[in-house]
Amino acid sequence: MADANLTARQLAGRVGVTPKTVERWLADEALLPHPRNRADVSDALGVDELMLWPSAVRGVLKTGPDRELVAAYPYRSACPSSVWARLIDEAKSEIFFAGYTNYFVWLEQPALCQTLRRKAEAGCRVRFLLGDPAAPTTQQREAVEDVALTVSTRIRITLEHLAKLGGVAGVESRFSAVEDGANHVGLSVFRFDADVLVTPHLARLVGHDSPMMHLKRAQDGGMFDRFAEHAEELWERGRAT
């Protein structure tokens, strides 16, 4: 452990600043050094940074319910496709696409069929929960969105891709129950082991124009669990495609 009794001059020499700068840090509790300097001083003194600058450390640590929030995007389309690719690639036990159509993932992720086949063959459970293309909720959503590429068409495109994975053990798909249509179409949940991407659909906006949150599980009963349990409940009441 470093000497905790270093003088300001000795400490300044180790950290690479002037003695006067060190004296200012020590004299004014409200004055916070640059994060790199705080780390260097802590290392030189052999103490935890929390002891020297507790307010700075607490300011960057998430300790409440929001600690599971990794990132938030005003639009789903603002999330880099590389984030999706990384989460899919790193998932070992669970990949669960519980969007209403899940159409966009086939466009944004090259060779997704091959990737999912490989993941399933390695023991990862791969699931798709889709809205029923013939359900009243689907028809209502099509009227709301009023776009050329309709909701039912987007669902059928996903079904065509899934047909290419037919017979692959570990790949499952279901339609959500008709009575769950409103609950499903209004909230998309995409789970990758302990990470989840969540999109609440706003009014007349299509999925890519709605906001999205990236959550990573850090506690029982937290935000991750709430959304994951929602998707599981819809899955349990669903039926085979």
Overview of the molecule:
- With 241 residues, this protein is α+β, with helices and mostly antiparallel strands.
- Strand 5 and strand 6 form a beta hairpin.
- The model has no long low-confidence stretch (mean pLDDT 86).
- The longest helix has 15 residues, at 223-237.
- Strands 1-7-6-5-2-3-4-8 form an 8-stranded mixed sheet, sandwiched between helices.
- The chain contains 12 helices and 8 strands.
- It is elongated, with a radius of gyration of 25 Å.
- Helix 1 (8-15) crosses helix 2.
Silhouette: elongated
What multimeric state do the chains show? single chain
Order of helices and strands: HHHHHEHEHHEHHEHEEEHE
Strand order of the largest sheet: 1-7-6-5-2-3-4-8
Give the SSE layout.
Elements lengths: L7 H8 L3 H9 L7 H11 L3 H4 L1 H7 L8 E5 L7 H10 L3 E5 L4 H6 L3 H10 L3 E6 L5 H10 L5 H13 L7 E5 L5 H5 L1 E6 L2 E6 L11 E5 L6 H15 L1 E2 L1
Core attributes:
241 residues
